[in-house]
Amino acid sequence: MAAVLVGQFHARDAEGRVYSVHEFQESNPSVDGSTGSEPIYKLAIGDRVNKVNENEFLLVQSGITLIREPEPTVAS
């Protein structure tokens, strides 16, 4: 089973530290074309992250809560 990087974003803990979070998806689709599994989240250093809701994540090893940083907007 291989996972493919499909996204990345930054998240902060309560003390303001910034973490780079990578989102992976299984690369083996099922017969109907869907991957059939939830995305896998990990820090850039490899620590596993669980998704709590759309903007909140939990580091598995330490139990630290991370809040997803908003996407930067570009002025036009």
Question: How would you explain this protein's 3D organization?
Answer:
The protein has 76 residues and is mostly beta strands. It has one domain. Helix content is 0%, strand content 49%. The chain has a 6-stranded antiparallel barrel.
Give a brief rundown of this model.
The protein has 76 residues and is an all-beta fold. The chain has no helices and six strands. The N and C termini lie far apart (43 Å).
What layout of secondary structure does this protein have?
Blueprint: E1 3-12, E2 18-26, E3 40-43, E4 48-53, E5 56-59, E6 65-68
Antiparallel strand pairs: 1-2, 1-6, 2-3, 3-4, 4-5, 5-6
Helix content: under 10%
- Main-sheet strand order equals 1-2-3-4-5-6
Overall average residue pLDDT: 88
Give the distance, in angstroms, between the N- and C-terminal Cα atoms: 43 Å
Helix-strand string:
EEEEEE
Number of domains: 1
| Secondary structural class | mainly beta
Question: Keywords, please?
Answer:
single chain; 76 residues; mainly beta; 6-stranded antiparallel barrel; 0% helix; 49% strand; globular
